Amino acid sequence: MSQITYKDIKNSEEVNTYIRQADASLEVMGYTEHNLAHCAKCAKVAGDLLKALEYDDQTVELAKIAGYMHDIGNVVNRADHAQSGAIMAFRILDKMGMDPKDTARVVTAIGNHDEGTAFPVNEVAAALILADKTDVRRSRVRDWHTIQSDIHDRVNYAVEKAELKLDIATKTVTLYLTIDTHICAVMDYFEIFLNRMLLSRKAAEALDLTFKLNINNNILL
Asked: What is the pLDDT averaged over residues 110-122?
């Protein structure tokens, strides 16, 4: 079996082609950016989180791979994209010669990342959930003219700064957001992202952490 690395996946033209086409389809449907930038950010955040928690190097590498590949299922359809993506990831990783035990962990994480059906079934899945659900930022909005008509675009555009911080001493992981309340109210964030925050709480608990949300220097969760 081959030792497949995050670098192998990130440099795979096959994987990147699926990501780009998936994002192109989502753009037509009016969704925020799900391109290589989102994938790379999720990979970094998931990997950094497990590394800071002192998981072994292979687990960290698998979290980065899952983070990068997690949205490829959108190339099939937005509906059930986590499950489609898991099947696609299995085919790709198996063809590349990844050890089945590692493939299983990546596939499980990808198949359990969407809030409709997600659950932090292992540490890789938990890290992916936290990375994906906390990626809220202005640069994900494709056209600022839509912020008045689309609440998802409005909330993302209102976020001037977002950072996920781990505090080992207190065993907390906190999403710090700076929101321009002239663009959207804080309650708008909860209206569309409450399920994501509840899922993030479950994911944090799976890593023996407490999830917190801090918006404009106010602790809300």
From this structure: 94
CA distance 215 to 208: 23
Residue with tokens 């059930």: 80
Close Cβ partners of 114 (under 8 Å, ≥ 6 residues apart): 81, 82
Amino acid at 190: F
Query: Which of 184, 119, 142, 195 lies closest to 32, judged by CA?
Result: 142
What's the rounded Cα separation, in Å, for the pair 188 and 167? 27
Both structure tokens of 140? 């994900």
* DSSP reduced 3-state for 176: strand
> Would you give the DSSP letter of residue 75?
G
Q: Where are the beta strands (DSSP E) in the chain?
A: 159-167, 172-179, 210-215, 218-219
This prediction has a pTM of: 0.95
122 DSSP 8-state letter: S
